[in-house]
Design goal:
With 475 residues, the protein is an alpha+beta fold. The chain has 10 helices and 26 strands.
Amino acid sequence: MLLATILLVLVTGGRPALGVECVAPPVEHVVAPSATDPAIGDPTEDHYAYVTPSLPSRGELMVFFPGSCGPPFYYRWFLHEAANDGFHAIGLGHPNCPEVNATCNAQDPIDPDCAEKMRLERLEGVDASPLIEVAPADSIQNRLVKLLAWLDAQFPGEGWGQYLDGGSPRWEKLVVAGHSQGAGHAANIGRLHGVTRVVMFDWLDFVPGVGVAPWMTKPKATAVERYFGMYHARSYAASVVPAWNLMGVPQTTATVPPEPEPFLHANRILTDVPDGTGGTSYHGSVVANLVTPVRDDVVPVPATSLLLRDGSARANANVRKLQFTASTRGLIHRIIAPLPGSAGDPTLHGATLHVFNAAAGGEVASFVLPAANWTAIGTAEKPRGWRYRDTASDAPIKRADVKDDRISISGGKSAFCYTLDEPQQVRVGVRVELGHGVAWCADAAGKTDQIDTFRGVGNTPAPAACFMVPRDTGS
């Protein structure tokens, strides 16, 4: 699991009831700010918007504000996961350079209200700070309103218009989130407007000789119980914790790891997980694409056999087919079936299967395998694994067996929503997640790779790592 999505689990309680078993990937819209309003100037970094039409909508919009001088592009994974959890999600390009704390604290004398003034000017485009100039058209509020109006006009069936109230955002339907400086914008919006939730990644505004910026302790339009945050033990934890205490954010904290999902008792998450590159970018690792770690309990395994078929050329989706096996007998990294009663017990927690393009990324089909369809293999004294059976005629996944050293899965027909309508897949990956406890991944290059047929190279060795989206080369 992407580390930042742990916080999504906390603030949402997890994915809504699907009503369907096959979840197509989110739709991505990349929008130049000036396309939504010709009066918008700098910065010109694109907005990113996501929605998953195949999921029931929560009727809530997640708006994410990047850290200082960073574009929304750097935070696409978090936005993608928000859309996978039923949100409409936007990464908003906005004036976020220069930094707030560094700029304010370089002044002589220091104005304790400097950060509040800079944030107000960036939010509303009013002349509040002598240190920056943000025109009304370039403000956060105008950029968000114009983007929502543009998305609603261009994609009227996606539901973006529900988050507008005339010329203003419908604040009560918004979850505002951000990283670093962007988290401060989210917190400030929550202070000024009643929003659904505020989500903060590793942030505080501080004033030398004073402590936290005075605006952080002012009364809030959003109840403090609706504020949630995630911070890193090796980043600014020593300062973040007392700052959030003074804000009134409930002090209930989940430490991850070792604490398992769903963390619903907590308003804060503390982590000490190394960054995803093995470096020391702890501040960014809580959410930024390049350095955030993905779940490290995913075990790469061989693709012993992998076959997919489609009927796109004949417009016959009913001939779709999936057959996958993985065997780890004699290998170091093994498939070990989780024990009954554990976090990986699928009869308690269900399971999820992902089939994805492992070369270009983008296409991911996810299938929920309900707990009711799983049974144990063996006895309580000698458990041997788990068996999944779905007898519904239109079930996308019909059979799955997970035993020590072996996984086998089969399915297909029209409800199996991974398509083969491109000339080539190059590589296809499979990821199996049992409950919250364990996951395995495999991928294979195509031995037969053409429209409507993909047969992977047999006995493809386990990959070094599995990513359902390509890992970025930027931060």
